[in-house]
From TrEMBL:
The lineage of its organism: Bacteria, Bacillati, Bacillota, Clostridia, Eubacteriales. GO terms for cellular component: cytosol. It holds the Pfam family DUF386. It comes from Candidatus Avoscillospira stercoripullorum. This is YhcH/YjgK/YiaL family protein.
Length: 153
């Protein structure tokens, strides 16, 4: 799934070597055994193996990144990710350049996608997202988030 505004379709090359390296990492047969932590994929691309328990949507915030795409891949477990164009939100916190993150106030309406094991979402900088949402009950999740530089063509 790639979710973005049509006006941005020409902005990024999703077949770049950085994206190819990211998806090659996700095809590793040992993802389920990797310890939580940070893994270099190729220059400029980093994978973060995460283990956590999902939370109710009300306890979470929408976030965006200016410098990177997020590829969020569920290895085990089940979660929803809220999605909405950044332009539809009002700022909750100023952009933190060192961490490449900004948080946003909850909108009146937003969409969501459910990720099952083996599913991924590609989230560009223009798309706010709220990961880790529980579905019915809080559940353990093992996920890999890969940060791919958002380099315009």
């Amino acid at each position: 799934m790639l979710y973005n505004e049509l006006s941005m379709h020409h902005r990024y090359d999703l077949s770049s070597p950085a994206f190819e390296a990211a998806f090659s990492f996700l095809r590793r047969s040992d993802l389920a055994e990797l310890a939580a932590g940070e893994y270099p994929v190729c220059p400029g691309v980093t994978a973060y193996v995460q283990r956590y328990t999902t939370s109710p949507a009300e306890a979470l915030d929408f976030e965006t990144h200016n410098k990177y795409f997020d590829i969020q891949y569920v290895v085990a477990g089940l979660e929803a990710i809220g999605v909405i164009p950044r332009r539809c939100l009002s700022e909750q916190t100023p952009y933190d350049s060192a961490r490449d993150i900004q948080y946003w106030h909850e909108p009146e309406f937003a969409g969501s996608v459910v990720l099952y094991p083996g599913d991924y979402a590609v989230l560009p900088p223009e798309m706010a997202h709220k990961p880790r949402i529980s579905l019915g009950e809080d559940r353990p999740v093992r996920k890999v988030v890969i940060k791919v530089p958002a380099v315009p063509r």
